[in-house]
Structure formats: structure tokens, C-alpha cells
């Protein structure tokens, strides 16, 4: 564990908590892509199957349980409890365009052709693009509430901080996982445009609004 | 190593 990894994890944790609290307290999931949330649930479940096979640490297990739990709580709030506030019309990204290529890629490029390893690899590939329906939704509506922007910023920062963690681990521990690194770069790059808008607008107290 | 069996990250 190093400071970059810990910051990344805390940023990730903050993101999922912000999202659940935002939906719960405003009693609304307007502006949130249910499709991205479904993809994240798939990511967590397929990646954290090792919860039942490998024990790493109490920290590791607790975080995994929280991520899976928060993800399912979000889906329950969006598709059941506050269903009426879910903005279907703007959440029109076709997730099969992300699922099919990531499944195929995981079957082709993995470290070991075992069920757990292929599912882990699939979850890494899928996570790198899982935010696209959400970014697509923001671009369709042309704006995002500031709390949604904070959520996106925390969620995007997490993989960026992991990149620093991987650089550190490469030098300090001679440890690297190429699949995670390349996917992490892709994932972080997808947020760049958003980061720019967040820093230039949201942090200056303005609403995140895309140029017309 | 690149063929590390346990993925210790989240």
C-alpha cells in the first residue's frame, strides 16, 4: 500500500458514497446514467469473485463489499425506489457496444485462460469504458448538476491516482500488470475532457455546461 | 511479476 493507491481507493469510495447520498437526499436520480451504473455493477461482481477464493486483507475485503453493496444500492434506488425520476430518454447509449468488445477482448488477451482470470480481465476492460453512457448523457443534455460533477471527478481521479500507484510499484516493488495499466490509461484519458470542464467551470462555482 | 496470481488491487 502506498499513498497513491490509498488516495485512489478513498477517491473511489468517496465517489460511490456521493452518488448514493445524492440520490437518497434529493430523492432523485435525474442526470445519472442507469446504464453506467449497471456496467459498474457487472464490473464489481466479475472482478470481486475472488472474495470467495482469496483473502488479501480486511481492508481489501471491506472495500470490495462496499463497492458491490453501493453499486447494487444505486441500481435499486434508480430502477425501483426513485424510478419515476430516472431520465430514460437521455440514457440511450447502447451498452452492448461496450459489452461485446470487452468480452471478446478478455477472451483473447488475458494472463491465463481460467474462468476467474478471464472475468477479472473482462472487468478491467469493461471498467475502462463503463463511464461512457454517463458522459454520453451529459453531452446529450449539455449539462450536469454540480454534485454529479463531483461524483464524476472523484470517480475519474481514482484511476488516475492508480496510474501513479502503478508507476510507484513498478520502481519500488518491480510489480506491474500490463492489462490493468493500459486499461487504466484508457479509462483516465476518457475523463480528460470532463476534467478540463470541471476545473475551469465547476471549481469556479459555475455549473458544468457544455458549449452549445 | 506480471503473472501474479492474486490481484491485490481494487
Automatic annotation (TrEMBL), chain A:
| Record has Flavoprotein as a keyword | no
Whether Ion transport counts among this entry's keywords is no
Q: How does it sit in the membrane?
A: Multi-pass membrane protein
Residues in coiled coil: none
Pfam families in alphabetical order: ER_lumen_recept
| The entry's keywords | Endoplasmic reticulum, ER-Golgi transport, Membrane, Protein transport, Receptor, Transmembrane, Transmembrane helix, Transport
> Which cell locations does it reside in?
Endoplasmic reticulum membrane
UniProt family annotation: Belongs to the ERD2 family.
Protein name per its UniProtKB record? ER lumen protein-retaining receptor
Source organism per UniProt:
Aphidius gifuensis (Parasitoid wasp)
Amino acid at each position: 500500500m502506498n499513498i497513491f493507491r490509498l488516495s485512489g481507493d478513498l477517491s473511489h469510495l468517496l465517489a460511490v458514497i456521493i452518488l448514493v447520498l445524492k440520490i437518497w437526499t434529493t430523492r432523485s436520480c435525474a442526470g445519472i446514467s442507469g446504464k453506467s451504473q449497471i456496467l459498474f455493477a457487472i464490473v464489481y461482481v466479475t472482478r470481486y469473485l475472488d472474495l470467495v477464493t482469496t483473502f488479501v486483507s480486511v481492508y481489501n475485503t471491506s472495500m470490495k463489499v462496499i463497492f458491490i453493496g453501493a453499486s447494487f444500492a444505486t441500481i435499486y434506488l434508480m430502477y425501483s425506489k426513485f424510478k419515476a425520476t430516472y431520465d430514460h430518454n437521455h440514457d440511450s447509449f447502447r451498452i452492448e457496444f461496450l459489452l461485446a468488445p470487452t468480452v471478446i477482448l478478455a477472451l483473447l488477451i488475458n494472463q491465463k485462460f481460467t474462468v476467474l482470470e478471464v472475468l477479472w480481465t473482462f472487468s478491467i476492460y469493461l471498467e475502462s469504458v463503463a463511464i461512457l453512457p454517463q458522459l454520453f448523457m451529459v453531452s446529450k443534455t449539455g449539462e450536469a448538476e454540480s454534485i454529479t460533477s463531483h461524483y464524476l471527478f472523484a470517480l475519474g481521479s481514482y484511476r488516475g491516482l492508480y496510474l501513479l500507484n502503478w508507476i510507484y510499484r513498478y520502481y519500488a516493488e518491480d510489480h506491474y500488470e500490463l492489462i490493468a495499466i493500459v486499461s487504466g490509461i484508457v479509462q483516465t484519458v476518457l475523463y480528460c475532457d470532463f476534467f478540463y470542464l470541471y476545473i475551469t467551470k465547476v471549481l469556479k462555482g459555475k455549473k458544468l455546461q457544455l458549449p452549445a | 511479476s506480471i503473472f501474479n496470481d492474486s490481484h491485490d488491487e481494487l
